[in-house]
Amino acid sequence: MKVAAVLGVDIGTSSSKGVLVDTDGRVVRSATRSHEVSRPRPGWVEMDADVWWREFVALSRELLAPGDVDVVAVGVSGMGPCVLLTDAANTPLRPAILYGVDTRSTEQIARLTERFGAEEILRRCGSALSSQAAGAKVAWVADNEPELFARARRLFMPSSWLAWKLTDHYVLDQHSASQCTPLYDTEGQDWYALWATEIAPDLVLPPLRWPGEVAGTVTSRAAAEAGLPAGVPVITGTIDAWSEAISVGAQGVNDLMLMYGTTMFLVHTVTARLTNPSLWGTVGALPGTRNLAGGLATSGAITAWLRELFGSPDYPELLRLAEASGPGAKGLLMLPYFAGERTPILDPRARGFVAGLTVSHTRGDLYRAALEATALGVRHNIETIEASGGDIRRVVAVGGGTQGGLWTQIVSDVTGRAQVIPSQTIGASYGAAFLAARTGWPVSIEAWNPVKEIRQPRAELAADYDELYELYRELYTSSKRVAHALAARQDRLMAAGPPAASDTPRTEGVAP
User: Which residues form the Carbohydrate kinase FGGY C-terminal domain (predicted)?
Assistant: First the structure.
């Protein structure tokens, strides 16, 4: 007899993940497809939407191939907020501009902030304009690609693109909309027509629903492509970090979710609307909830970069070397601003630094410094959240970076916070599956995903990490001018293009 199961698919920055889960929360199968983003210029991060649907189809067909399950609902989620603009026929006009890791909209942020007023934007939208704001990226397209923008009629994100491809319904969830600053009013929980009309007069913004609400049912066309049964419900879905929070039950008041992925997200659920210009005040993923959130622009992206730089040793080996390095990485200190930084410094011109290097330092020391850098960034965000009125009483970890234990232990040691590690840390695809299951069954995430362990901070390391944290904060301040100057040089070099062949230095006879 076939098992009733829900399909959850998440489109992430470096991979797409799919999971089949039975209605009791047990994972039947999972699958992954890796991909790369495009970085055509410093600060630009893009992706073709065709990849999102192609990988959904591949994951769906792989997971359903054994023929032993009946899919009864589909859940979707994806990185965000992203800006995918299409014409009236829903044909993408350009690659999607990704979330806060794409920092191209600096001029639009400044102009819109002056136009509408920083205080009024924060009051109405819950967040200041920053590289995370999807509305500023819409304005960038309008300013820099006017002929293309004149044809733009619809705005999608990865989750809403999948929902449309599956159901033919054009919708977006409330949470994703709340990251479209300044197009959305967090008090009224609807598009703010006055500003939206000024920024994008010809865009037909999507109707809004909650992430767990049904967007529609699988069409016969989508069923044939993806191997799904026609007519099953598809939820509206949401941004991956918020789906991750749902996957581990971290949407209760005073919870903080830490998402260990290519980037690091922090989502704190609050009782009342809180704002801070250095953070993101958003609508929650569940009706009636609000969040104060933050994110590092790079975390797992740095460890992946180091792995490639080191000649691709496996992650368990790098973790072993990092553990052997010991707390403090033998005197190294890294700033993790390799793609600028989102919260709380909101500085797209920030750059990565490694301080304290000597010829005696090893791969393990550098890898340890990268893990500690992200932990120090998490601490900076936690302190900013609590200074804004947040009350963090429980921290829940999720994502691929929880594997192996060292990274989560370092974060607990640096922040002085215990972390709940759930049984399933698959992440957003599991959260999407859970929301899909709720369309037909009275399921609870506590039953689906009970606590596996609790990572406790080691008190004996507190003083050393307090000192390192002070140096971390000082290093950004003291290196900021240099970082910005180097970012400007990078822009000039990219604008000039690669050197001509005749200008390329000859390397014959040079020892390796």
Answer: 257-438
Residue with tokens 């993806």: 226
If phi > 0 it is left, if psi is from -120 to 50 it is alpha, else beta; for residue 356 that is: left
| pLDDT score recorded for residue 507 | 34
Hey, what domains does the chain have and what are their CATH numbers? Answer: 3-241 (3.30.420.40), 249-423+458-495 (3.30.420.40)
**What pLDDT was estimated at residue 493?**
87
Decide: 140 and 104 in contact? Cβ < 8 Å.
Answer: yes
H-run or E-run covering 426? none
Q: 10 Å Cβ neighbour count for 150?
A: 10
Which residue bears the tokens 């010991």?
326
Instruction: Quote the CA–CA distance of 499 and 66 in Å, as a whole number.
Output: 52
* Distances in whole angstroms, Cα of residue 436 to Cα of each of 27, 117, 202: 14, 40, 33
482-490 contact pairs (CB < 8 A, 24+)? 483/337, 483/349, 483/350, 483/351, 483/353, 484/349, 484/350, 486/351, 487/42, 487/349, 487/350, 487/351, 488/349, 490/42
Burial pattern 241-263, b for ≥16 Cβ within 10 A else e, equals: bbbbbbbbbbbeeebbbbbbbbb
**Cβ contacts of residue 479 below 8 Å, gap of 6+?**
335, 353
> Quick one: how far is CA 143 from the chain centroid?
26
CA dist 434 and 73 (Å) reads 10
CB-CB contact of 494 with 41 (8 Å): yes
Integer Cα distance of 354 and 330 in angstroms: 13
- The pLDDT score that the predictor gives to residue 42 is 84
What pLDDT is recorded for position 467?
98
What is the per-residue pLDDT for 500? 58
- Distance between start and end Cα atoms, the chain: 62
Count CB-CB contacts under 10 A for residue 175: 29
Which residue ranges of the chain lie beneath pLDDT 70? 498-512
- How distant, in Å, are the alpha carbons of 22, 406, 432, 449, 455 from that of 452? 20, 16, 21, 9, 10
User: What is the Cα 511 distance to its own chain's centre?
Assistant: 42
CA atoms within 13 Å, Cβ hemisphere of 433: 34
Question: Who's near 371: CB < 8 A, 6+ residues apart?
Answer: 303, 322, 406, 407, 410
Asked if 389 and 411 touch (Cβ cutoff 8 Å), the reply is no
As a whole number of angstroms, the distance between CA 230 and CA 222 comes to: 8
